[in-house]
Amino acid sequence: MGNEEELEKICQKIIKLDPKMRSARIINSRGHLVAGGMKKGLMSLEAQKQDEMMFMEMELALRVRMRKEFDSEFGPVHFSMSYREKVIVMSFPLANDDVLLVSTEKELDFGKVPFKILKIIKPLKDVMKTF
């Protein structure tokens, strides 16, 4: 597993989990978008400039790598969530320091959906190799 078409299918499966989902993106360790995007029909709340988006993705990839520093004390991170004013943003570390970045409406049941996502991405946690 790990080709671009399979990754796109996984992102679409995640977006279809709940009507409140906005986006699902897989970002590699260098901060480049590998698969996924916005739910069809929705406009992104993020800045439209490509270079700003790339910087945000690179920053996210770096933060996920840095979280590993505490794995020996607390165990590995399964996901991280930010409850923001306009959206909920979740990041899920994958193999090879890649990241799944998910955004949702604030009304999402965040006590259940992240765990459904973990089940979907389980095959990607250990074996994924992106571009």
Description:
The chain has 131 residues and is of the alpha+beta class. It has a single domain, classed as Beta-Lactamase, CATH 3.30.450. Helix content is 37%, strand content 24%. It is built from four helices and five strands; from the N terminus they run H-E-E-H-H-E-E-E-H. It has a five-stranded antiparallel sheet.
In short:
This protein has helices at residues 4-15, 50-67, 71-74, 113-127; strands spanning 21-27, 33-38, 80-83, 87-93, 99-105. With 131 residues, it is α+β, with helices and mostly antiparallel strands. The chain has a single domain (4-123), classed as Beta-Lactamase.
* Poorly predicted parts: none
**How far is the first residue's CA from the last residue's CA?**
13 Å
CATH architecture assignment: 2-Layer Sandwich
Helix and strand pattern: HEEHHEEEH
Which strand order do you get reading across the main beta sheet?
2-1-5-4-3
Give the CATH class: Alpha Beta
Sheet-strand content, in percent, reads 15-25%
